[in-house]
Each structure stands twice: as structure tokens, then as C-alpha cells.
Amino acid sequence: MKQISVLHFGAGNIGRGLIANIYKQNDVKIYFIDTNKEVVDKLNQLKKYQIINVETNEKIEINDFKAIWSNEEKKIVDLINEVNIVSTSIQSNNLVYIQKYFQKADKSKKKDIYCFENGNKISEQFKKSLNLNSNWNFINVSIDCIIPQVINDEKMTVYVENYFEIIAQNNCYYKLKLIKYVDQIDPYIIRKLVLINGLHSAIGYLGHFLNYQYTNQSFNDENIKKQIQNLANDLILALNWKYNQFNKEDLIVYWNKITKRFCSKYINDLNVRVARNPLQKISINERFFVIYRLLNEANIDKINLIKIINYLLKFDYKNDLQSLKMQKELNNNLQLFLNNYFSYWNKKDLKTLKELYKGERC
């Protein structure tokens, strides 16, 4: 039987650390595509690299791959035509830059497309953006893995935590080991988006405000932990109310596992990295939009969320373009900013947020 092959956009830590290991365990040949030519050249020069588990020190060698620079358009289109699977880990806002390759590819061949990105049904959104008829399956996924912030050495080593989870919609041509396939993906995407992505970001905003550098330092602060726990309690109630896939006890066990990862000494994740792009995080279908909608549907008071959003609005970091844009707009016209970016909030909640932000309410 011919070996399955994959074209993967993104040779960063997630692509090389988590996704490449999934493919290795399935004996899949990998073609990495990346915009960073130095990374591409280094990978091709080395022809192998290691993934190291920071908790167990287990080492996995990745060696069945080739790397291609993103400017080599014809080669990439030819590879899309050739491979069985195409996947991404480039952040959802960058998917627009790879549309051109898909538009020029052969649409008749059966192919699985996985967007391993944080967000709600990103593969489905990508399909809609392409606006094409094809024999390609766009598979929605929920992906959970924290890659510790360790400076890569000259051997392109990637360090990973012991835990990971990938859940995918069961509409694929090629099933992969280590991925859990389900018929209804929505509950798992929402659970991960709110309890992990949402609360991880929240730790970043609270921690940055209190001048902590790392998220594990932040979460070990009792005041921060209490605020995060309050919102987690609300979300567990809301998830239990909305989805029959989850009971309250299982959600509590799931959350307790997350808290251990958030405060792990092995995961030094910078607050400014976790908190980056605040305007994206409050946009439609993103984590804080989903949290607000979920609490609203379950008729749960949103004060704990509003307190977190207040710290998001105070995220002021000179190396983050969205942070700079946000601070400028907030300073120019607070009410206009709130109306524009929180159009999905009701007037009562907007009033509470405004009062908190201006220090008129505790």
C-alpha cells in the first residue's frame, strides 16, 4: 500500500512538535510549508530533529519530511495535488494568505483538509472562504496542547508537554491514530474554546496587569486563581446545561486537569504571548464571544466574565499591534469602542463593563 502523505502549512512549534508527531505515529510523509526561509533551509539541512517531552524527557525523532518555502507556489500547488491530507497550524487569521494555493489545485481528487487552529470550526470557515466545489473534506477539529516557551537550539528541537488532545469530526477519508473522531464536534470545540483558550487568555491579561511574566506564575497567584475559578464555575454550569455529552462531574475533572497544566513548572508561557491580539479574541465566533453567548443562553450572570474583559481592555503592550490599536481607540472614544467591538453584548452588561473600566464600580 502506498504511503500516505501530507502537506502541512506551518513549521513552527505546533506544526513540528504536535502535528508532526501525530503524522509520524501514522507513518505519514510530511511536507512542511513555511514563510521563514531560514527555518525551511535549516530543516532541509538537518533532515531530522527531536521532540522532547519536558515532563518525562522522552525523545521522538522526526525524519521523514521535506520543507518548502512558501514562495515556491508551483511546487506547493503540485504537492497539494499529490498528497492525501493538507493541514495547517499558522493561526486562523493567516489562512487568507494560503488561499491562492488551493484555488489553483486540482479539486477532483479526494483529500482531507485539517485546520489545526484555535477557534470555532476553522476548517469549515476556511472552506467557505475558498468558495469552491471539490472532493475535499474540510474536517473541523478541537486541538489542545501547550507548547512550552523554550528557545530552540540549532538542531530545531521542540519541547512539548505530556498532555495533548485532538478531537475531529468524523467525515474524513483517512482516519489517523491518536485523533479521536466524533459525529458531533461542536460540544468539544466549545468546551476547549471556553475552558482552555478563553481562560488561558484570561490568565494572560490578569497576569500582565499584575506584572507577572509567565502564565504559571500568574495562575499561582491566589487572587488570579480565584477570579479564573469563578468564571470556570460559570462555564461548567453552562456547558452542562447546553450539551448532553458532558455531565457536571466530568467537566470538573476536565477542568482540574487543565488547572494542573496552567500552573505546571514545565510550561513557561509568556503572558504577552497568551494575551496577544486582544481584538481578535473579542471578535465574532472567537473565545470571548462564545463565552458571552454561552453564559447568556444559560441565563448565568456574566459579572465574572465582565471583570476579565476589563483586564483585557487594560492590556497595553507596545509590541502588540492590536493592543496599540485598542488603547488608541479606547482613549479616543470609549463608548464608540464598546459599541463597535461588543455589539453582541446587551446594554446592561456594556454599562457594567464601562463602569468597571472607568473605576466607577468594584
From TrEMBL:
Keywords, alphabetical: NAD, Oxidoreductase
Gene3D superfamilies: N-(1-d-carboxylethyl)-l-norvaline Dehydrogenase, domain 2 (1.10.1040.10), NAD(P)-binding Rossmann-like Domain (3.40.50.720)
UniProt keyword annotation of Zinc present: no
Entry keyword annotation includes DNA-binding: no
InterPro entries according to UniProt: 6-PGluconate_DH-like_C_sf, 6PGD_dom2, Mannitol_DH_C, Mannitol_DH_N, NAD(P)-bd_dom_sf
Entry's EC annotation: 1.1.1.17
GO molecular function: mannitol-1-phosphate 5-dehydrogenase activity
Catalytic reaction equation(s): D-mannitol 1-phosphate + NAD(+) = beta-D-fructose 6-phosphate + NADH + H(+)
Annotated ranges, domain Mannitol dehydrogenase C-terminal: 185-326
Name this protein carries in UniProt: Mannitol-1-phosphate 5-dehydrogenase
Residues covered by the Mannitol dehydrogenase N-terminal domain: 5-171
Pfam families linked: Mannitol_dh, Mannitol_dh_C
Organism: Mesomycoplasma lagogenitalium
Enzyme's top EC category: oxidoreductase
